[in-house]
Amino acid sequence: MNDAETTAAPAETSADVPTGVPIDAPADAHALDARLSALDARVERTNELLQRMLAEVAKTPSTHAIFVDAGYVHAAAGLLVTGTEDRRSFDLDAEGLIEAFIDKARTIFADSRLLRVYWYDGARRRIHTPEQQAIAELPDVKVRLGNLNANNQQKGVDSLIRTDLESLARHRAISDAALVGGDEDLVSAVEAAQGYGARVHLWGIEAAEGRNQAEALLWEVDSQRTFELDFCRPYVTRRPVTTYENEGEPPPSREEVRFVGAQIAATWLAERGRDRLAELLPGAPYLPGPVDQDLLVEAERLLSRSLRGHASLRRALRDGFWQHLKTQY
């Protein structure tokens, strides 16, 4: 074979054999298709689960709760209807008022369900009074108690409201909160709830004069609503002024008044406890103004006689009160 014949033989060129493609390319392509198919299936499954979850969420109604500062309600409604904030001067139909709040919320939050009503009040040593016990027994109502100091001022109520508002909002238990109150200390409670996505709506009672809700609170909430005199009037009733039909008779004796003072002291001690007594003793023989006033009012009720203008009988009343307390310490 000559050189011409040798060079004439066709040579295999780079155009005939593709470069950069491994010998097992068909197998790799099948594996890629399989992985893509699996990925598509997973995406489809995820979309299906999301659709189910969204469907369940759509079927779940939003939820609201009502938070009532009872101290604010008594003061504002009492002043508006009867002209006084003194609880001893009027009766508040708490059950009727709570039901009215629930009805109003049902109208405002039409597509929402009620979780419950929280009723915040103060009590000595956080022990329920008979009135508070009756409220606690109402359906869908939770009574939460702060303390009362020597001047009958609530302590700890605002912190209870903040704790409940923040906790319920954080756990997505409520979407809307109706807050009946006016104290500036509630601003932090509103901010905490809003931080978790809940909307807070401030409800107030018409002020007899001026304003009975803090401006900072009004600025912070999502909406405001005021209940006027006609709304409040059915639930607030002034107590009748006590009349003493036997005023023409001789006044009771000092011993009789002293005995009544001891009776009242026994009830006072049972309701408030020895810790409160320990706070009272250093001031003997004087009583804090609110305690002395309560003592006088209760004694006049039991005696059906006025002790106003009878200084010696009032001293006997205090003597009987103190005498019983000291024997129990």
From TrEMBL:
Gene3D superfamilies: 5'-nuclease
InterPro entries: NYN
Low complexity bias (residue ranges): 1-15
Domain (NYN) ranges: 65-209
Source taxon at top rank: Bacteria
Transmembrane segments: none
Signal peptide extent: none
Recorded GO MF terms: RNA nuclease activity
Descriptive protein name: NYN domain-containing protein
Protein species of origin: Streptomyces gardneri
